[in-house]
Amino acid sequence: MCIRDRCNPHKIINFLALDKDWDPSLIFVMASALGINLITFQLILRNMEKPFFLGKFPEIKQEFDVPVIVGPIIFGIGWGISGLCPGPGMLNLFILPQGFAFIISLALGNVIASKIIIPMLTPPAKEQDQGKILNLSLIHI
Predict the structure, then answer these.
(1) Can you tell me the distance from the alpha carbon of 102 to that of 114, in angstroms, rounded to the nearest whole number?
(2) Distance (Å, rounded) from C-alpha 107 to C-alpha 98?
(3) Which is it for the CA torsion 59, 40, 109, 63, positive or negative?
(4) I need a surface site. Which of 30, 34, 42, 124 has the fewest CB within 10 A?
(5) Are the C-beta atoms of 8 and 84 separated by less than 8 Å?
(6) In this structure, is the dihedral angle defined by the CA atoms of residues 110, 112, 116 and 120, taken in order, positive or negative?
(7) CA-CA distance, 77 to 24, in Å (whole number)?
(8) Model-level pTM greater than 0.85?
(9) Pairwise CA distance, residues 137 & 125, whole Å
């Protein structure tokens, strides 16, 4: 990531800013990641009987709920403000002076989201929903 300048927050901000400094190179990173994941996830789901570390795959809810909508919005706002997503942000812990502040903010944001915001916005789970994957967008601490 650092070799191709993906740890540089200005590279990300120049991609998000649609002005004379616009840098479209991140489109290729996103498109290749999307393509690889579309293929590999389908292969995994079709060919694996059970996951490596669980007895069975958890059920996935089909309807959208508040965390599935709010999580990516918060992630996108943070990505746009900082110019970093978690992977390059963790690398910047060792490269940039603000890397440590980013990691602390990331951890604090996850705790606040999982312990305060999501419980306030989500109705209590029904018994039949217990054990289902509710939210794939946040890391729960």
Answers:
(1) 18
(2) 15
(3) negative
(4) 124
(5) no
(6) negative
(7) 19
(8) no
(9) 18
What span, in angstroms and rounded, lies between the C-alpha atoms of 11 and 35?
Answer: 22
Q: Bridge-partner residues for 133, per DSSP?
A: 60
At 75, the amino acid letter reads F
Q: In this structure, what token pair is assigned to residue 60?
A: 């996935």
Residue 89 neighbours by CB distance under 10 Å? 23
14/21 Cα distance (integer angstroms): 6
String of DSSP letters for 55-111? SSPPPB-SS--HHHHHHHHHHHHHHHHHS--HHHHHHHTTTSTTHHHHHHHHHHHHH
Pair of tokens at residue 93: 């812990």
- The tokens describing 3, both together, are 């070799």
Residue-wise pLDDT for 64-107, tens only, equals 777 778 888 888 888 888 888 788 888 888 877 778 888 888 88
